[in-house]
Specification:
The chain is an alpha+beta fold and about 575 residues long. It contains 16 helices and 29 strands. The structure holds one RNA strand of 76 nucleotides.
RNA sequence: CGGAUAGUAGCGCAGAGGCUAGCGCACUUGCUUCGGGAGCAAGAUGUCGGAGGUUCAAGUCCUCUCUAUCCGACCA
């Protein structure tokens, strides 16, 4: 590619909306442009990188037996009604009607599509296992897109769907993906860690997320250095210390101006762990078949020294969504905000109790009366409810192995889910097994966000001068800068390299050397060849590597194509050396 | 969806009632320059986000609206 003909331009100053280094450089170097909130165009450089990422993904998906397909972005709403997600997913899904007034949606993932196809193609166990995948556009109308390419509304995703006879088959496909994803990220040079995760709207039980650790990430990851435990905070577990003493009887005491745990502890001169705090939420429950919604008040009771992890709470109470309760809703259930507890509340309230409360006793809790608390409340004796772990794991808490937990921020670039039969059963995707019986196909689904992948690479590989993407994903392999008058020589080298199949970005512009160098630094092609008067006279070209700009090499012009090819191979093998192999035990 | 901020040239910004809207970079042409964002000269570029209003006069004041960004709610 000749830079004199290139579509995009580089920017000296970043648009004011760029708030992370990687995103700023993607804009400045001309990889991406923004169209709207969470909506982006890929310019030639960005698209080339994206294509390279996609091809790495294709290679690895094909390697584990994946067959590439393409499903539609526009879906008839019917299949989404079959699984109930037409009703259970809120405004994040775009709904519209076509000219004949049929309900339509924009697919935000493709479990429904994949299942709808599979139920017609797979009739027998002889057809199983299967693995299909696609690289395709998704639309998710996120309430708040942010951070450049990290959280967007329209994005490209690789999604694969596995179909199996039995759980062993699913486990194998799941393990294949687990390892395959590590190879994909390693080939592209992106360091990731895998964490145990929540399956969210996908349903199913086992799931893992691939996280790129970064302070701009929106997920919190809890890790233990000693035993290797890693999990998204949404599901992370930790060791709680319990305190049990001889049971004492309830006692009502006056506690004016004690609406918070801190105030209460100060007044009574006790520790937070000696209290039970109440968190009021309203859960929405949606009927999968009819779409009817019902709201229920939920009181989460947790020991005062812990915080409620909303995600865990939502699971425990089996709600489709949660929101904080309004004061009047709390009062309507005979409880008092600031002085609330599950004791003597309206029986319709769903009571969720953290196991820390069950395993402790004589806790101070609200009396459901303005300015009064109760001493010595005990779960089981004074109130009952669903016991679950709903506590949020935090930095410094104790891992189950006894070591201290740490927390980090991360960006989710990939995920794998064991779906089981959720979709096959609701969508009637059955096969006839060897024993002649009809059984639901067992499914898994697996995603990689391609745009996020690019964004993470840009965060990982940059310096003050610009981007410095690994050779496997950089838009070009070689940047040829010509500073000499002898056009013929530059053209010859450009053609020789290109004819060898090397991706060359050739700066043939009538620009000053300074402009060419700064643009080269900014775009960050891994290998740079500079043709300058001094070295050319001696039959040499200067070569620099973007990941080490301070070192300068001289290559012979006669053998430059071969030398450059060797350098490319070296850079590539350095990347593959870093491949992490991790075993997954299920 | 709540709170805050901002929309003036491709990008970054100034102009805060006064008549012809500006600066830097980028862009065009010419000459010089040519190893780290060159110099000189000449030029082109704006429905001042949109609609309505106040006024002799509106980027500038008022009302509504749209859009974007950040914080939160939310989210794979």
């Amino acid at each position: 590619m000749r830079m004199s003909k290139m579509f995009s331009r580089t920017l000296r100053e970043a648009p004011s909306t760029a708030d992370s280094k990687g995103y700023e450089l993607l804009l400045r170097a001309g990889f991406v442009r923004q169209m709207g909130a969470g909506i982006f165009s890929l310019l030639p450089l960005g698209y080339r990188t994206t294509t390279k990422i996609e091809n790495i993904i294709r290679e690895e998906m094909d390697e584990i037996g994946g067959q590439e397909i393409l499903m539609p972005v526009v879906n008839p709403a019917d299949i989404w009604k079959e699984t109930g997600r037409y009703y259970s997913i809120d405004k994040e899904m775009c709904r519209f009607s076509d000219r004949a007034n049929r309900d339509m949606v924009l697919a935000m993932t493709h479990e429904e599509d994949a299942t709808a196809i599979a139920r017609n193609e797979i009739g027998s166990y002889k057809k199983l296992p299967q693995l299909i995948y696609q690289i395709q556009t998704k639309w998710r109308d996120d309430a708040r897109p942010r951070a450049g390419l990290i959280r967007v509304r329209e994005f490209t995703m690789k999604d694969s769907y596995s179909f199996d006879r039995n759980i062993e088959g699913l486990n194998e496909q799941y393990k294949n993906h687990y390892a395959s994803y590590f190879r994909i990220f390693s080939k592209a040079g992106l360091p990731v860690i895998v964490v145990g995760a929540d399956s969210g709207m996908m349903g199913g039980k086992i799931s893992h997320e691939y996280m790129y650790l970064s302070p701009i990430g929106e997920d919190t990851i809890i890790t233990c250095d000693k035993c290797g435990y890693t999990a998204n905070r949404q599901v992370a577990v930790f060791q709680k210390e319990y305190f049990k003493e001889e049971e004492k009887s309830l006692e009502k005491i006056k506690t004016p101006n004690c609406k918070t745990i801190e105030e209460l502890c100060t007044l009574l001169n006790i520790e937070k762990r000696q209290t039970a705090k109440a968190v009021f939420m309203v859960g929405t429950y949606i009927d999968d078949k009819t779409g009817e919604e019902e709201e229920k008040l939920i009181i989460a009771t947790i020991r005062g020294d812990f915080d409620v992890e909303e995600n865990k709470l939502q699971k425990a109470c089996k709600a489709n969504s949660l929101r904080p309760a309004h004061e009047d809703e709390i009062k309507a259930a005979k409880m008092v905000p600031g002085y609330g507890s599950a004791i003597n509340c309206d029986p319709k309230t769903i009571i969720i109790v953290d196991d820390s409360v069950k395993k402790s006793n004589n806790l101070v809790a609200g009396a459901n009366e303005e300015e009064y608390h109760l001493l010595n409340t005990n779960y089981g004796r004074d109130y009952k409810g669903i016991v679950a772990d709903i506590a949020s794991a935090k930095d410094g808490y104790t891992c189950q192995c006894g070591h201290k937990l740490k927390e980090n921020r991360g960006i989710e670039v990939g995920n794998i889910f064991q779906l089981g039969t959720k979709y096959s059963e609701s969508m009637n995707c059955f096969f006839t097994d060897e024993d002649g019986k009809n059984k639901p196909v067992i499914m898994g689904s697996y995603g990689i966000g391609v745009g996020r992948f690019l964004a993470c690479l840009a965060e990982e590989y940059n310096d003050e001068q610009g981007l410095s993407l690994p050779i496997s994903v950089a838009p070009y392999q070689v940047h040829l800068i010509s500073l000499i008058k002898d056009k013929e020589l530059s053209e010859k080298i450009y053609n020789d390299l290109t004819n060898k199949g090397i991706d060359v970005l050739y700066d043939d512009r009538k620009e000053s050397p300074g402009v060419k160098f700064t643009d080269a630094d900014l775009i960050g092609i891994p290998i740079r060849i500079t043709l300058g008067n001094r070295s050319v006279k001696e039959g040499k070209a200067e070569v620099k590597f973007r990941n080490n700009l301070s070192e300068n090499f001289l290559f012979n012009l006669d053998s430059i194509t071969e030398e450059i090819q060797k350098s490319i191979d070296n850079l590539k093998s350095e990347l593959t050396k870093k491949i992490i192999h991790k075993e997954l035990s299920l």
